Amino acid sequence: MDRNIFGLSGVAAMAMLALTSGLAHGQCPIVCTDAIEQGDGCGDDPDSVNGGCNFSETDPAYDNLGAFAGTGGTINYHGTVGTFGANTRDLDWAVVSVPQGGYINVSATHCDPATDMPAPNFTMFVIQGSDCATQETLFAAASGASPFVSGDLFVSAGNIVLIFTVNAFAPDLPACPVEYCATITFTPGDFPECGDPLAGPCDEAHAGGGCDVFACCENVCAFNPDCCMVEWDDFCVELALDPSFGCGIFNYVCEAPVVDNDCAAGATEVFVDDVVDFDTTGANTDGPPQDECGSGPGNEQLDHDVWYWWQSTAAGVFTASTCNLTQFDTKVAMYDLGTETPDTFDPETLPSLFMGCNEDCGDEFFASELSLNVEAGHNYLIRLGGFAGSEGPGQIAFSAALFPPPDECTNGGDDIITQSNDPVADAGQIACAGGGITTANSFARSFIVPGEPKDSYTLNCADFGFSNSGSDLLGAINVYEDTDGGEPLAPGNDLVLLGSRAVTLSGGGFLGNLIAAFDPPITVAGGTALVVELDIPASTDGFAVCGGNGAGETGPTYILATACGIANYVTYASINFPDANWALTLLGVLNGGGCPTCPDFDNSGTVDGADLGLLLGAWGPAVPGECFDINGSGDVDGADLGLLLGAWGPCL
Q: Cα separation of 634 and 188, whole Å?
């Protein structure tokens, strides 16, 4: 089934976690005996029958693999996938029915006939349910291993959806057809009563055995078979609420608080730039365990937690940090309350409100720093706890970088500087990423400003290409002077910052051009080696990269990405991407929109007594449009006189 690559055209070229394959040469074509064939070809009509939820959310079309018997069994499925056309890939969708709770295991051998080797990014999804609105993804991963195996996955009775394709974010996107043979094995659980949608909920006592969540029920009944064979009573519920059984059911309790913000409902309100003292010694642990903290099995909880809340006035990035402020191992998590406040929301909904968590920020005490995107008008709950029972005093700091509104270039100027043959971005480019999520990346172009040193160029706006599949980011367009005039190295090395403009880097599948309007404009002398940089922070959920096109460039695009070992700027071509480019256009005015860097007011080519006389004649409040206020203070005064005397002589 044809599908666009989730609105993306960026490709992760570096820092991808790749698995090497043990499959030998000569394995194409894939042999698949007793297999059900896919319902469409690779790159066929997008309205073909094998469309799944990509084709229709109300009446999805899947290849029907039938139903497993109660004793389990194996089904083989054979097809082809791959990329074709512009930014498009083929997906095969299939559905199989299981009669009761059990374990699904999917194993796929695959091969790219173009290389006679496994595809480097073969991708599989295993999804509980065939209703597009309520599906739950159980497995989603890409690999170059062949066979690529999902491992045993808990499934409940009902339909299981399988998707096979190639990863949109991997270094190579093999073209159609990549051949594969998938083997789907179902093993029923030990307790047929588990996972039945008609059984009662696992967190409520009810007549009859079993409950509606297979994995939870199976684990509880393995400990106490009566919970399945006799009745799901209060003791079974007690077991289900125990985190060690993996049921994921949260029962909120906070008793005898030791500090005012010990319980979630008593969270302390905080504001941007607050640094708050705390002491978690003896505090309750009333929040839910969070696997996402990265603490490893058995340490999912944020122990002895205390709570804060913050209201966002605009979209942006909010940061809560104990880094270098606390001398014990902390964790920080955040929850989105929407328009609710701590005293009005239901704490038992905390698991569904979870946004993110951080355990370690890299300091010697394993303190924490969490930065997440926030929306205007939302209330956020910040939870501070400890790793493996850690507790104690410390401080936590709160900050926010709120997104500015989009810039417009209302008075850019007619003097354009560019190296892009086409100024409009229609494709994302190459970036450092892992698992399809970009790390921090910077992209740059280097220009020699037209004119002689006594001339000036006033840069008003930068029009630049950008692509982002994830959430909005707060980035910047930075303008540097390259002090040695050669290949740019890095800020703080040969690059001296002249000015910067914070920009909102649009997400949600954005691909196109954005504007940075410099306020105040940046004025440089003719002949200056000017480096313009797009600085993109790490994404939390997508691929954010500069945008370009296929028209090419007259000068190189540079990339800097420390996470991929690129500590100084290098060209795309030098890392084997000669066609990648950044669409960037500078809009400004030559000798007309600003003041020259050399205070040669009479344009004689030399700073001399004539220029001194003109400056003294303008002494006092600066007149708009005149250039005697050299330092831009608003007054022509002794500071400007000192700058003029320091530039005495020829304008070089």
A: 80
